[in-house]
């Protein structure tokens, strides 16, 4: 099946499929002649983007088909279970959807950041938030690939690319969220080993995880907390490593989120990821990619919601017209209650009892949404280009994460409103997209912290 889906953009290698190296002519500027596939040409009403090559478009087709065939039909049952199946992970590995932009020499697929973006964008367009592929591939795996020893890379990366080893990262604690310098989980030396104690919460992929990168204090006497933090690779089944309950969330219901506990977990020296007491610096280097990922997921989800709503208002009829063509709705107050009137040729006609909340100029609202989405998409695409060139800084990534997550929630609110009562019904995709959006300003660093990081860069003397 993988050969059929990915033929033309992937090549077979030992252990799975890899993206073909992009030809030199592909500058991602849109100057070359592109092979436009039917749905990649104009995925949404937002228009054609110019950072992708023809090979990326072909890859997008295969990724979209994977989500249509392997994810969407099963997502409702995964929402009830609070986790996706492990079988899905192995299918994703066989299709070359994991570790996409991890170097091939490490056991990854060997694509670029644009190829990785194709996967997480298509997941957003599918409105299926259950599979934790992006965290696994674009947050956890880079730590191992960039800071791990040769033995750690060989042991984990190929298995993670194949979907046989699921990764998670444990930063957040009950008393320390965005403040990474406030973590209390600690590891002390015992001979050549480490003894790990503490707890973590809100850990994505925590329940299914086979390996977890744990942030822990290793030097309480350091001149600052940032100088005394290390990262450890903790594997499932280690004595004292306990997975707590799967947390019941408002949204992202199919994405497993767990509590993790570490009670005198004995770790060999080989479990230390990178250098001792350098963990905080590794986190700071990798967080821009995490925030860019959240930003692109956010704008992609906004594009999805816009398309759902545009289609709905063009089909939904009220007062004999589609909602999209109602110019304006007025709500006068009478003693007997609220009534709706439709403006037609400057006159208010067809008074009827109100059944939905007051709607203002639908066409103008759609125009506002599309404008905000298009402007934000251009910014996020520029961030993707900066990241591919190795020039995405923390402040810019923070701006992207802050702005897109705020926009996503604003778009979600307006799109539910334009759906009326049906937007509040769970069987409508817009309802799920609405609750899933709420976490975006919270995880990956709250938006209040994003503003602090942006402001710090503005007033810096550098």
UniProtKB/TrEMBL annotation:
Domain Acyl-CoA dehydrogenase/oxidase C-terminal span(s) in chain numbering: 277-327, 357-458
Coiled coil: none
InterPro entries documented for this protein: Acyl-CoA_dehydrogenase, Acyl-CoA_DH_CS, Acyl-CoA_Oxase/DH_mid-dom, Acyl-CoA_Oxase/DH_mid-dom_sf, AcylCo_DH-like_C, AcylCo_DH/oxidase_C, AcylCoA_DH/ox_N, AcylCoA_DH/ox_N_sf
Pathway: Lipid metabolism; mitochondrial fatty acid beta-oxidation
Principal localisation: mitochondrion
Gene3D superfamilies xref list: Acyl-CoA dehydrogenase/oxidase, N-terminal domain, Butyryl-CoA Dehydrogenase, subunit A, domain 2, Butyryl-CoA Dehydrogenase, subunit A, domain 3
GO biological processes: carnitine metabolic process, CoA-linked; fatty acid beta-oxidation using acyl-CoA dehydrogenase; long-chain fatty acid catabolic process
Domain named Acyl-CoA oxidase/dehydrogenase middle: residues: 168-265
Name of the protein described by the UniProt record: Long-chain specific acyl-CoA dehydrogenase, mitochondrial
Keywords: Acetylation, FAD, Fatty acid metabolism, Flavoprotein, Lipid metabolism, Mitochondrion, Oxidoreductase, Phosphoprotein, Transit peptide
Catalytic activity: (5Z)-tetradecenoyl-CoA + oxidized [electron-transfer flavoprotein] + H(+) = (2E,5Z)-tetradecadienoyl-CoA + reduced [electron-transfer flavoprotein]; oxidized [electron-transfer flavoprotein] + hexadecanoyl-CoA + H(+) = (2E)-hexadecenoyl-CoA + reduced [electron-transfer flavoprotein]; a long-chain 2,3-saturated fatty acyl-CoA + oxidized [electron-transfer flavoprotein] + H(+) = a long-chain (2E)-enoyl-CoA + reduced [electron-transfer flavoprotein]; hexanoyl-CoA + oxidized [electron-transfer flavoprotein] + H(+) = (2E)-hexenoyl-CoA + reduced [electron-transfer flavoprotein]
Cofactor: FAD
């Amino acid at each position: 099946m993988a050969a059929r889906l990915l033929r033309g953009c992937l090549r077979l290698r030992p252990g799975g499929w890899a993206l073909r190296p992009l030809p030199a002519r592909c500058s991602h500027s849109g100057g070359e002649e592109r092979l436009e596939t039917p749905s990649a040409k104009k995925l949404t009403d937002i228009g054609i983007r110019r950072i992708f090559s023809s090979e990326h478009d072909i890859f997008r087709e295969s990724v979209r088909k994977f989500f249509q065939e392997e994810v969407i039909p099963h997502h409702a049952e995964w929402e009830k279970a609070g986790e996706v199946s492990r079988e899905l992970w192995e299918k994703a590995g066989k299709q070359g959807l994991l570790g996409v932009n991890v170097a091939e020499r490490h056991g990854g697929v060997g694509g670029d950041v644009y190829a990785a973006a194709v996967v997480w964008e298509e997941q957003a367009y599918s409105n299926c938030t259950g599979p934790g592929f992006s965290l696994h591939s674009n947050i956890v795996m880079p730590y191992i690939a960039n800071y791990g020893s040769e033995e750690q890379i060989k042991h984990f990366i190929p298995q993670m690319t194949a979907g046989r080893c699921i990764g998670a990262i444990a930063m957040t604690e009950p008393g320390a969220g965005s403040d990474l310098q406030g973590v209390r989980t600690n590891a002390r030396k015992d001979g050549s080993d480490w003894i790990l104690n503490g707890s973590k919460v809100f850990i994505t992929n925590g329940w299914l995880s086979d390996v977890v990168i744990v942030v822990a204090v290793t030097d309480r006497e350091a001149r600052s907390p940032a100088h005394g933090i290390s990262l450890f690779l903790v594997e499932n089944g280690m004595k004292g490593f306990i997975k707590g309950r799967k947390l019941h969330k408002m949204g992202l219901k199919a994405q497993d989120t767990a509590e993790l506990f570490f009670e005198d977990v004995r770790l060999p020296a080989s479990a230390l990821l990178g250098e001792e007491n350098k963990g905080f610096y590794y986190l700071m280097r990798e967080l821009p990619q995490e925030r860019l990922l959240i930003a692109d997921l956010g704008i992609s989800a906004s594009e999805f919601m816009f398309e759902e709503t545009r289609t709905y208002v063009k089909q939904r009829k009220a007062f004999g017209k589609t909602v999209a063509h109602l110019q304006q709705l007025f709500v006068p107050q009478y003693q007997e209650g609220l009534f709706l009137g439709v403006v037609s040729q400057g006159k208010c006609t067809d008074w009827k009892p109100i059944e939905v909340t007051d709607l203002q100029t639908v066409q103008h609202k759609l125009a506002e949404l599309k404008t905000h989405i298009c402007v934000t998409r251009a910014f996020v695409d520029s961030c993707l280009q900066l990241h591919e060139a190795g020039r995405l800084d923390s402040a810019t990534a923070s701006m992207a994460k802050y702005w897109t997550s705020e926009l996503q929630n604003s778009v979600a609110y307006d799109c539910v409103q334009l759906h009326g009562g049906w937007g509040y019904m769970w069987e409508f995709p817009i309802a799920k997209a609405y609750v899933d959006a709420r976490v975006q300003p919270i995880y990956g660093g709250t938006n209040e912290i994003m503003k602090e990081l942006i402001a710090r860069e503005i007033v810096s003397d550098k």
